[in-house]
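Figure 3 (text version): structure tokens given as input.
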């Protein structure tokens, strides 16, 4: 009778443990769904209010500063003079460009102005916030016309798991996810810094070519894809 009593006492304990486990799983799933719904509402709000105009202005400022008579033109002219001065003394100058996040947009425009007078020896992008179409258009062209040497473009991005672990205030994903899903047009633009879009064979890569003229899409796209497949890793950060 004593043994039967112990068995009868163990059954409710096991049942309670199982019930608590199921309740925890249910609560966790419900919270995940709530966060997802909140993030989607946040994206809609950010894209429909001040977020998108501010992001557009940031990109316009980067283009204005880098092109024409902007401050970058003055910098390139100064570098050209420095290179000539060093050459008189038998010395060489190397130019290595590094851009993080929106800095990739600024550097992309800079490369449009870089020529044989002051060539760039490398460009390194850390979690670039530019779209894949932008990267193909600007960095692809730079590789094609030797403004960047073959093998001179390096990209580093977080794994998608680590990217999703980042947050922006109450938003449950990273800044790059917010840019992709809310601030670019149309929504869910493939960004060069998001690992999910860098995987070989990803349909998003093929879709980029649709927005680029036939004369430039293949060489530029292939150059970007080759660079992306080489350096998409957390280990390089």
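Below: residues designed for each position.
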């Amino acid at each position: 009778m004593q043994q039967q009593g112990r068995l009868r006492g163990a059954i409710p304990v096991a049942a309670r443990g199982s019930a608590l486990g199921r309740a925890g799983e249910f609560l966790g799933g419900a919270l995940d769904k709530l966060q997802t719904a909140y993030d989607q509402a946040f994206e809609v709000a950010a894209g429909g209010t001040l977020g998108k105009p501010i992001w557009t202005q940031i990109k316009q400022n980067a283009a204005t500063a880098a092109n024409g008579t902007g401050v970058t033109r003055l910098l390139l002219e100064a570098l050209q003079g420095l290179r000539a001065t060093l050459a008189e003394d038998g010395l060489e100058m190397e130019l290595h460009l590094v851009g993080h996040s929106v800095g990739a947009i600024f550097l992309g425009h800079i490369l449009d102005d870089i020529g044989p007078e002051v060539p760039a020896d490398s460009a390194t992008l850390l979690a670039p916030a530019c779209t894949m179409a932008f990267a193909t258009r600007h960095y692809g062209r730079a590789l094609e016309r030797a403004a960047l040497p073959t093998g001179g473009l390096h990209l580093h991005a977080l794994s998608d798991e680590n990217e999703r672990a980042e947050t922006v205030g109450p938003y449950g994903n990273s800044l790059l996810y917010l840019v992709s899903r809310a601030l670019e047009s149309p929504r869910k633009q493939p960004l060069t810094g998001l690992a999910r879009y860098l995987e070989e064979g990803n349909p998003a890569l093929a879709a980029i070519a649709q927005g680029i003229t036939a004369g430039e899409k293949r060489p530029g796209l292939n150059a970007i894809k080759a660079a992306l497949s080489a350096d998409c890793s957390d280990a390089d950060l």
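The mean pLDDT is 74.
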